[in-house]
Amino acid sequence: MNEFPQVLTIAGSDSDGSAGLQADLHTFFIRKTYGMSVLVAAVAGNSYGIHASETLPLAFIEKQFDVLSDDFKIRASKTGMLSDATLIKTVVQAYQKYDFGPLVVDPVITTKHGAQLLVDSAFQALKGLLLPLAEVATPNFFEAQLLTGVTISSEADQREAAKAIQSLGVKNVVVKGWHNQTDQSEVADYVLLADGSDFWLRHRYFDTTHINGTGDTLSATIAAELAKGETVEQAIRVGHEVTTTAIENEIAVGHQFGPINHWAAAKI
């Protein structure tokens, strides 16, 4: 009873299904784990953009943690976008109260193009309260710069940023490479593990507007693999393969900024 790998996402609902909680659940499904959720917010959006958003009452968020802990054996968890400092503090306190396995933090601070999403108080709460709980953190290029103050203009800078993020209390760090969309042929993601070992994950740059949910998918895959008992290194490698496969095989959904193709990655 209750032994099937169970994974939790702590995230917001994206009504078009391309990112957030929906992308996490798509990912948990293709990785053959049972996905559960603590819903923290809801977004009214489509492929053209986000048009409205609401944060759920904090007491209701806490209750979701409570009832899940009463029944299920959650083996790993992940966070998505947490929009304000009070919400981050609520999630941190609730996660610390229960045994929901190792935590993967997707530190949603900026868009893929560098636009900052969090006000300063929320940024500081994420940096000081949430990241120290992370088994794995997966910042994008711009988020890594904001978290560390390191200007990343070389692979040496990328390594320096990863070490600085690890010094915040994060055990394992994936610093995703820059997508500059000008004349790029390759993207290089840098991985620094808790034991000090490191490696690069490189993939071809895909010139597409269908990239919604890439960060969610990477972090959700890592959480799913950890729930199945894989090592952190293997979980990250699988996450990279799943995400790049889902990007490469474009799916015709939406008119502008569309989702990645989880069906293609289901074969992995």
UniProtKB/TrEMBL annotation:
Superkingdom of this protein's organism: Bacteria
Gene Ontology MF, one: hydroxymethylpyrimidine kinase activity
Keywords: Kinase, Thiamine biosynthesis, Transferase
Annotated catalysed reactions: 4-amino-5-hydroxymethyl-2-methylpyrimidine + ATP = 4-amino-2-methyl-5-(phosphooxymethyl)pyrimidine + ADP + H(+); 4-amino-2-methyl-5-(phosphooxymethyl)pyrimidine + ATP = 4-amino-2-methyl-5-(diphosphooxymethyl)pyrimidine + ADP
InterPro entries: HMP/HMP-P_kinase_dom, PM/HMP-P_kinase-1, Ribokinase-like
Domain Pyridoxamine kinase/Phosphomethylpyrimidine kinase: residue ranges: 14-261
Name this polypeptide is given: Hydroxymethylpyrimidine/phosphomethylpyrimidine kinase
Organism of origin: Leuconostoc kimchii
Primary gene name: thiD
